[in-house]
Structures are given as C-alpha cells and as structure tokens.
C-alpha cells in the first residue's frame, strides 16, 4: 500500500464518501481469506494507551513510513480490570460462555477478518505485511493467533504472555485456600526474610554477587520444593527454632518461618500439579520463580479473608485482578466465595475453559510452515503473570519442535530479574547480606524492529540481544540461557556471556 496512509489513531477508521474511495465507488467484496499483509495489531495490558492513543502510532509511522497500515483496538484487553479483573456492576459477561469464548479467542478472528474487509474496501487492495504485537493479555492473544490462526499474521511479538490463562486466574485463590489454616499464613512482614533467602542462595549463581538473580533456572530448581528430589529443604536456614515464631511482627531479614509458612512458600514457588491434564496435555502450572519482590501483586496478603481461620465475622471475600475467572468462569456465581473452589467440583469446567482460553499448544508447526516469525520475551521475576508457566511453555515448544526448527522461526527470550513491565533493578541487599543502592538495569531493546527485519528482510535476530539503558548495557539471552559474569564492569554486556543452565 505504498504511498497511502491509514490514520488508525484511537482505533477509528476515517469516513470517506464512496466516490472518494481509492479505486472509485465502494463495491461488494468477499471477506478476506488469505494471509494478511501490512497490518499491525497491538494489544497491551496497560490502560495508558487508551488515554494517549496516538503516541504509539506516530512513532510507528516515523519508523515504518506510510506504506504500513496500522490498527489497534480501542479496548485494552482488560488493562482496566474489565477484561478478567475485579468485580463490578457490569461483570455478568463472566458467566456467559459466548462472551468467555470471545475474550479467549473468537474476537481475534472476528476483528481481524472484519478489519481486513474494511481496509480492502477503503483502499482497494490488501496490505503487504501483517503483524500482531501484544503484552500480558495481549501477549497471550499473540500466542493464540500463532496457534489457532497461523495464516493471519506474518509476524508476532508476544511479551510477558499470560500463557495458562485459566490457572493464572485461579492461582492466587489456591494460595489463599492453602492459607485457610492460620498456621499457613505468610504475612507481608516476612517479605525481607524471603527476599534475603532467595538472594543468599541464588545471587552468586551467575558468578557475581550484586543483588541480581540472573541464573533463574538454577534458582527455580532450588526452591521448587515439590519436585520430589530427595531431602529438599530450601528454607531450613529460615525455620523458626522448635517451629515457634517468637516475634511474628519482625519485618527484618532475620525473621523466621514456621513449618506452615514454609509449606505455603513451597506452593508458591513449586509447580502445581493438576489432578488431570488440561488442554494440550499440560499437567502442571509453573507458579512463580524466586524474586526480589516476593510480596508483589498480592502473592502475600496482609489480612484474613472470608473462609479463613481467624477472619473477622464481616471479613471481605478475597478478590484480585483475575477473580472473575474463578467466581464467574468456573463457579458461575459472581457472589460465590472463590476460596470454596475445589478441583474435584469443577474438573469438567476446568477442562472446557482450558481448551478455550489457555495458549499452551506447543505445536507451532503450521505457523512455521507458512513462514511466520515469532519474537517472545518474558520476565523471570514477574509477579503478575506466571514465569513458571511461561518457562514451562518455552520448554514444551522446544520438546515438541526441536531446537533447530524453533531457531528458524522463533526467539524465546528471558529477562532474568525483570518485572511484568519488562524493567528491572538490583535489590537493595546482595546475597552476602550487604546493603547496596538499587540500580536500574538496562532493559531497552526494539523488539518490533527485530521482527520487521526478520519478516521483510529475512534478517533473523540474534539469540543474544544487547539491551541498553543510558551508557549501560546488558545481555538478553534465549531460554534456557542466562547472562553469566566473566569479568569487567557489572553493567556492561561485554562482561557477560549467555550460557545454558
């Protein structure tokens, strides 16, 4: 569509009289059936984009010129809590199967085909290239179009995707259910002690003690207490003497943990195994990976909720961003207590929802065969999405397709100490217990430019990327590699090399 510009700011299509349409008056067209070209579709988690809808579009036009058609939806896929979030007056949709399936996958095909019909009708021709760029919920949607609609997009960027959507919404409830006995409750007062133990055992696994956990796979293995590998007691050094917490109000790194609290941490940082496999044979949910923010996104709760021992008579029901996925999707009762959930009672529903909404299919062969390209990146210390589930999905793709084939069409990057926004900083204490200043780590890289070069110029991105931040640099490695320190300044990429676990 060289020389023509489509103004997609705010997701609106400019109206033109029929006689001003390219190619003359409007004519009847069949809906598009072929792979799309020249289309850029962004889904993001943050509602910020809806407040400043033109910003991203202008930057894209500056980089790519007027030959690229840009479209983005006006609705941000739940970034304001409506997609799968907090309870409110308009949440009846969460008990409606058609609405659930629309959010899960159907809307992706409907909006794609309808929009391409409009583009072709307005411009008289189809775009040359088609891209989908998504973050968080949009990242899951990116993987969904790769898995379900492999002919629709030439390239996909999927950032911090909420891969196993249905169990991610359930997981915070699983933690609170495990904490029904008061003895299992891990209050936020234990945050510093948990962080200190993660750093004590994992900070040096990359060859440098600097308040950064780069070797995410080795650290995950240490604290995955349910792996069944012999005498595995990662919290032994933090256990309260005689299992009695003499100072439960202690908020320092020296605070101890009771056996009940250690069992809860075992749940949070170990794979959660399903009673029966869900869609695509997935047998577990990866939960979370050791992080310097162990209380982030409500992983630790500062109060007791309805249904928990010690809760007040008027205690609130537990709620979080994805609670509608439990009370609405699974229990089909918006007034239900999510802590009443049991796997046995909802086994059939769990399977059905997983087939609709989980982007866990490891067979990306159809997308590969038609020449599609995928750039994905996750943050190993994300507390909103599940890094464990994301890492497990990466591994399942490699197991299914093999490293050589995956490298031919996909990049699977991991930012070791990153959060849900793909930013990172050092902890304020290192693995030796020494206090250090928090330093913002370099995390800037142009993922969309890499994808365009790969799709349009057949220039594949490296399996190792150099990220920037001011005059500092750092390596971004492909799963399962991590940046191992060699020698030199800690905030220069040349001081590291990407090595496998």
Provide an overview of this structure.
This protein has helices at residues 48-51, 54-64, 97-123, 137-148, 165-178, 191-202, 216-223, 259-268, 324-330, 347-357, 365-369, 387-401, 403-409, 447-457, and strands at 39-43, 69-71, 130-135, 155-159, 272-273, 284-285, 373-379, 410-415, 464-469, 472-478, 482-485, 496-499. The protein is 31% helix and 11% strand. It has 501 residues and is an alpha/beta fold. It has an 8-stranded mixed beta sheet, sandwiched between helices. Strands 5-6 form a two-stranded antiparallel sheet. Strands 11-12 form a two-stranded antiparallel ribbon. It starts with 38 loop residues before the first strand and ends with a strand. Residues 1-39 and 44-87 have low confidence and may be disordered. Helix 3 crosses helix 4 (137-148) and helix 12 (387-401) packs across helix 13 (403-409).
Shape: globular
Terminal residue distance: 46 Å
Mean pLDDT: 85
* Helix-strand makeup class: alpha/beta
Total count of strands:
12
Strand order of the largest sheet: 2-1-3-4-7-8-10-9
Radius of gyration, in Å, reads 24 Å
SSE sequence, one letter per element: EHHEHEHEHHHHEEHHHEHHEHEEEE
Specify the biggest β-sheet: 8 strands, mixed
Question: Which regions are unreliable across 5 or more consecutive residues at pLDDT < 50?
Answer: 1-39, 44-87
